[in-house]
Amino acid sequence: MAQQIELRISSDPRWLRMVRVIMQEIARQAGFPDGERGEITLAVDEALANVIKHAYRGDPNGTVLLSCEAEEGRLEIELRDRGLAFDPGRLVEKAPDELRVGGRGLFLMRATMDEVHFERNGDTNLVRLRKSVKAPTRE
Fold first, then answer.
1. Smallest Cα–Cα separation from 125: which of 70, 88, 92, 93?
2. For the chain, what percent of residues have pLDDT higher than 90?
């Protein structure tokens, strides 16, 4: 049976820490090992930080809806906002070894999650992140 949680938070960066803690627990309950829980948490943290910084341009009064659906071994996370539209096709991804601060959020999301999807419906942005537990390796 799927487990679901939905949070409505303001676009204030002070919520990032709480969301990281919640994502760790959701990923644990979905059956992800420590390393993968960290990857999921990093991807969601980057996605939410990007919404705050870019969609709302740092305005803490925007609204972000974070929803998660977890089943054993699978997790889907959606972030919805009504900030400025995001076009991932126009973004130039930075090389992971390039020395500079910032600009790696999209790279990190794509590197850690199985699927990263962006869309705009009317005045709403959607970021969808999906991940399945990797099959255990046999030695």
1. 88
2. 75
